[in-house]
Amino acid sequence: MSRFFRSGESSSEDSSSEEEELYSEEEKDEEQQEDSDEDQSEEDDEEEEDAESSEEEKRGASKFLKDVDSSDSEDSDEEERGQVKSAKDKRYGELSQTIKAIENGSKIGDWNTVATEFDKLNRQVSKIKDSGSTPKIYIECISDLEAKVLEASEKQKVTPKKMNAQAARGFNTLKQRLKKNNKDYQDLITSYREDKLGFMESDEEEEPLPVKPRKIRFDTFEPAQPAADDDEGFETVDGKGRVVQFTPESIFKHLRAIMESRGKKNTDPFGQIKVMEKLNSVAVTPYQRIRVILTMVSARFDLSAGVSSAMPLEHWKAAEQELSTLLTVLEESKEYIVIENAEDWEDDDKPPTLGPNDKYIKIPGSIVSYVERLDDELTRSLQHIDPHTSEYIDRLQDEGSLYNIVFRGLLYYETLRKETSLEIPQDSLNRIVMRRLEHVYFKPAQVVNILEGNCWKRVPDSVDSLITPRESITEASDLISTLCNYLFNNSEGIIKARAMLCRNYFLALHDEYYLARDMMLMSHLQEQIAQFDVATQILYNRTLVQVGLCAFRKGLVYEAQNTLQEICGSGRQKELLAQGVQIQRYNQVTPEQERLERQRQLPFHMHINLELLECVYLTCSMLLEIPLLAQTGSSPDIKKRVISKTYRRMLEYHERQIFTGPPENTRDHVMQASKALAAGEWKKAIQFIHAIKIWDLMPQTDDIKAMLSKQIQEEGLRTYLFTYAPFYDTLAVETLGAMFELEPRKVSAVISKMISHEELAAALDQVTSTVIFRKGVELSRLQGLSLTLADKASSLIETNERTLEQRTQGSSNAFERQGGRGRGGGQRGGQRGGRGGARTGQRQAGGTTFTGGALGNAVRG
Prior knowledge:
By secondary structure, the chain is mainly alpha-helical. The longest helix has 31 residues, at 2-32. Keywords: Cytoplasm, Initiation factor, Protein biosynthesis.
């Protein structure tokens, strides 16, 4: 019997649970559907059907067991089920509970809870507003809450007792959010405060606004450029399935939503860019276009947030076009100004307007930052493209349009400073002038003139520049000088140093050696360059190399070799000039350092030819080292002086080769020429040097080869005199001139210079035009070798004594041994000093004996 009753109870419980699930599903559907009235009517029909089905389920065996109590309980259950609330009533109930929680929290000062409930209240109101108007109890709540917050704020100023940290944070958060939220309901709040009772009387009779029929519009916007639209026939919808319409009135709300979602996860940047392109097409006022373009360019730059990836080409070109459009709009609408220190306009419903005392509307933004980022993205793109392909050439053509953007950006800042009374940051002007300078300092003058001419053609004749006037800047040298002088006077630190280096580079590139050298020395950058950043150090190295190449083109061999020694002598030309990563044999560089090294690499069109650089350096070293080797020889009494260790190592390696074939590369040509020059075959040396094909890359190749021939003739004469002076008593100047095909005056000048520098022990008889050599006390070969052996033995003893002192340091008798060694070392040192002095008195400097050296075999052969 009990089992029979239990079945009836379970069936009623099941039916009631089904109804509860049905109601919960109805609520979820209510929240997701926009047309609340239609959905509610359908749900009511379903409720009636479910109620009938539940009653039929209860009919059965259980209805024959009804008594009075059961009938009464059934009637009460039916009454409760008849009082089911709709989704709207339920939402209003939740809204009332939240408002009550806010009132309670404000009474006890629990501002943290009030702030949490306030956010919850706004979310509930947004759902109610989707299907009707704003509830008046909500207006009452936020109006009273604003008064309570104001009262608590005033009370806090008077009362010394402070809130705790948690309550203070909640109070400040609530105060800010309430102030921003109440702006949207200011009219309703004012109406409520004027007549509270009249405002709230119609609250219960309030009916939702009628739902407007949905209109589908396909002509909401028109693309800026006529193109085939792949989205034809489709609409943009939001997360709730509603059609998004782009109108001029909704531009700022869309921009605000995009800015708030910028950088967050699960955000589609490409979709945001498409939305902003549509907003740009429907913008009608200059302010709307400026705001949309600023946001859109920033979003495009976000596509290449990683340092290892370059910005997509189509987006780079789009950003360049948008920046050009932005500058055009700013030039036409001069009442709008884009400046860094402007305040953001937070009202999305209406644009800012000019006040009675206002002349300009400031819009926050930075033109120079966009220009710098666009320039950096082009450089990064060129770094990732193979320079030996046509794609690199096509990409390089975009530099002209980028330079035009830089030029127009500088004109915009100059116009702001000239026509407005606003304070324009000097740093912004310096940065954009520096960018303009960095685009022209390494280019030939002809290319710079073309770039400048194209920029001025796009500017109206009425517009002129204050820094670089149109009429006074006629040559590339004038432009470089003007830009550098401006930075010298208005900047400090790195920008000033980079301007100096750029000017010196341009001067050296155009064969102004002495001016570039003097400016480099006067700037004292060689003493401070280690304190600057890596990019400035790279620019310093490039300038130093260019000055050295300029000295070589001028025929100043010693100056060129001395300038290039620091870069080329290190063997790290690629790394120092940022033209490649040096291959490390034992992984001495971490992956992070290697990544940074690759990021600072220069694009290929800015490279200095490393093969040409090495050829110039080795040729200059040959012209200096071969006479020096002939002068010193293997004489132990003359101090060995090395000009270029790199060249010496190559020369010794070449001497050790058993068989040397015809020269194949630049180094082989220079080594073969060195061997021929040391043997006195200067014509053969000229042939080897002229056979190097890399000279064709230098301007005025014929003049370079003629200069090299002249230098080889003179150094061949010096080498001959150093080598064969001991075998002559007198030698006619005409004979030397005929041997080396030099004029007698030139031969006399070379010999006089050697005698004045005490390089040659001789005298020049101008009457007979002969060279008279002086003979000194000569040492035999055996004596010379003996002295060499004695010097090497003494140096070996000193080395052994230092090693022993280090090992025995700290022992009990170390002081005695040290004193004994000191006395013995002093005696030996005195003996060696005396022997050296005697030998110096017997021999004369000047290399009167050539007995060996790196090229001894070649000379004797």
